[in-house]
Amino acid sequence: MKKLLSTDYSSWAFNAALFILRISLGLMMLPHGYGKLIRFGDLQHRFTNFLGLGSTLSLGLTLFAELVCSVFIIIGLFTRFSVIPLIVVMSVALFKSHGGDIFGDGEKAGLFLAGFITILLVGPGKASVDRLMGK
How high is the pLDDT of residue 133? Predict the structure, then answer.
């Protein structure tokens, strides 16, 4: 019981938690990107144009973030760089597409955003390709 109430943590537990966070967020993001990929033709003309570059390009950038960057986060490769496009996509989803309704329709985007910001601040942890490369 004393250990459960303690605020101390070990390096092993910290790195295991980062690994679980990276893997779970990356794996949960992949179906979002895949769903957009298979419906690309339907979505390309009505997707949110968040950069003023057109809805097709915005959809393409979102697909890159949700598919490619998610895979990089799962394996821990260029993790901090890979999480930035996902933070942008989740911010747009929360604040523009869902009107900032964090306790309603935007709840999932808010949770993803919080997790990705955590990874940006803390890094990938020791169980990552970044660590093996010495970054």
Answer: 84
Question: In degrees to the nearest 10, what's the CA dihedral of 52, 28, 41, 65?
Answer: 40
Total H helices, total E strands in the chain? 8, 0
Q: pLDDT of 70-114, one tens digit each?
A: 999 999 999 999 999 999 999 999 998 877 788 888 899 999 999
Tell me if 73 sits within 8 A of 51, measured CB to CB: no
Cβ 119 vs Cβ 25: under 8 Å: yes
Rounded (10°) CA dihedral 46, 50, 52, 54 = -30
User: Which phi-psi region, left, alpha or beta, contains residue 91 (left: φ > 0; alpha: ψ -120 to 50)?
Assistant: alpha
Distances in whole angstroms, Cα of residue 72 to Cα of each of 12, 19, 47, 126, 128: 22, 13, 25, 15, 10
Kindly report, residue by residue over 31-50, the tens digit of the pLDDT. 999 999 999 988 888 888 88
Question: Are the C-beta atoms of 65 and 89 separated by less than 8 Å?
Answer: yes
Structure tokens, 107:
């709840």
- pTM of structure: 0.88
Which amino acid would we find at residue 123? G
